[in-house]
Amino acid sequence: MLSLLGAGLCASAPDETNPSQLSPADYASGKKRSADAAQRVIPRLKKELAVKGLSVGSPVFIRVFKQSRELEVWVYNKSTKRYQEFKNYKIHGMSGKLGPKTYEGDMQAVEGFYTVGKWSLNPQSRFHLSFNLGYPNKYDKAHKRTGHSLMVHGNRVSAGCLAMTDYNVEEIYTLCDQALKYGQNSIEVHSFPFRMNDYNMNLMKKSKYYGFWQNLKTGYDAFEKNQIPPSVSVSEKKYVFK
After folding, report:
1. Domain count, the chain
2. Is 208 within the bounds of a domain?
3. Strand order of the sheet with strand 70-77?
4. Is 56 among the domain residues?
5. C-alpha closest to that of 41 among 191, 185, 174
6. The domain that contains 230 carries what CATH number?
7. Cα 64 from chain centroid?
8. 15 vs 177, residue with greater confidence
9. Is 138 inside a domain boundary?
10. Which residues are catalytic?
C-alpha cells in the first residue's frame, strides 16, 4: 500500500481514565450505559469545545480517511456558520484495503457518503457503544452491493467496521447523540480512502477504483472549499453534489 502525504495528526487516546462504575447488571442496559458515558464525558467535552468557540449539542459532521486511519469530528460554529474541526481520532481497528465495500463478507470498510440518525445509535452494542453508518446507501444499492451493519464502535477490533477505543467512542457517540437531541436531523459521514488532494489522486491513477474516487473527490472538494457538507444525492449510479 502506498504511503500518501497530506494526513493530519491524530489525537492519541488517553488512558481509560474515569471508567464506568456501573454494575454488570446496569451496564447490560444500553440506556444506562449511554447515560453513564454522557455524564462522564460531557464535562470534559464542554471545556475542550469552549476553547474553540464550540458547544455540546451543536451539529456534527464526520470524515473518515481509511489509509491513515483517521476519524475527524467537525462541529458547527454558530459564529462563522461553518463547521470547524474539533478532534481527529485514531481508528484502532479496521480490516480490508483501499477500495469500497462491495459484498457481504469482503471485510472492507465503506467508502462514500452516509447518514447517521437517531435510529442509527446503538447503546446496546456488543462493542460498548456504536452507531450504524447506513450501508448500503442509495449508491451502494444502485451498484447491487451487499452487506449490512457497518458501524463505528468501541473495543478496538473490527471486521469491516471502524473500531475505536472505548474512551474515544464515548466522546464521538455522545457528540452525535447530543447533536441529534438538540435538533440536528441527521449527521453526514463522508468516508474516503485517503485525503483526496491532487497529489494523492495522481498516485492512484492506475487503480481500478480511480473513476469511483474521482466521483468521491467532487464531494471532498466541496467540503474543503466551504466547510459545509454538500447536499448529496444519487443519479445514474453516481453521486451528485449541490
Report:
1. 1
2. yes
3. 82-90, 70-77, 60-65, 187-192, 112-116
4. yes
5. 174
6. 2.40.440.10
7. 5
8. 177
9. yes
10. 153, 161
- Write the pLDDT tens digit of every residue in 79-115: 999 999 999 999 999 999 999 999 999 999 999 999 9
Is residue 133 predicted with pLDDT exceeding 70?
Answer: yes
Residue 168, amino acid: N
Query: What pTM did the predictor assign?
Result: 0.92
Domain contains 99: yes
**Which residues span the domain enclosing 36?**
24-236
Phi, psi angles (nearest 5°) of residue 151? -125, 160
Give 233's strand partners.
240
Q: List the one residue out of 71, 70, 101 whose CA is nearest residue 209.
A: 101
pLDDT score of 11 more than 80: no
In sequence order, the 6+-apart residues with CB closer than 8 A to the CB of 227 are 74, 82, 83, 84
**pLDDT at 6 > cutoff 80:** no
Here the cell at position 230 is 454538500
Q: What is the pLDDT of residue 8?
A: 36
